[in-house]
Design a protein that fits this description.
Elements lengths: L1 H34 L69 H6 L27 H5 L4 E10 L5 E8 L6 H10 L6 E2 L2 E2 L2 E10 L1
Antiparallel strand pairs: 1-2, 1-5, 3-4
Length: about 210
Amino acid sequence: MRLKRHHIYALILSCLLLCSAVSLLFLNQWLSNAVQAKVEVRQVHTISLPPPPPPPVQQQTQTPVQTVTLAVAGQGAALNLTLVPQVKVDIVAPEPVLLTQPPTDWQAELDIDWQAFGLDQLDGLPQLLTPIKAQFPNSLVRQGILQVVVKLDVFIDEQGQVSLIAITDNPHPELVSSIHKLVKTSRFSVPKKNGQAVKARFIWPVEFKK
């Protein structure tokens, strides 16, 4: 009797262990399904683009060749064609002509040797032989200016001719034209040193009056 009870208890215990194992198995499966994220797979329908149109075909246009047919009626004499030879003409370019221009006043002044003696090195002071004739500008007269003194750096050669090197003092630009005219028409006595004609250079004060 006791042996049967032991078998019954063992059977019940085995059933309990089996139920526990099955419960643990289902619990583990449920937990894994709960933790695992759901992955949705969607089907994407792709639209294929139509192929690009073919490049335009360039049609080559052929220029029609005009054919001239000469129909000769009857039996005539044969035509002799004479080819005229081509004549080659050599064109010779003319040689360039170099135009020479005479030197201007300022170019001539550049060739002058301005080395000369000062007034203190001469035997005597050169004397002005021509009167001072210069037009006084009317614009200065309208301003009430009737007298102006300018200073000119001049060069006197061995013949007494005057050349203007520079205008050192001129308060009124209106007198520039009159100064150049005065220098061209002026002449001094020949500067001398030890009795010989020499070149001289000095500052010439000129007074313009109305």
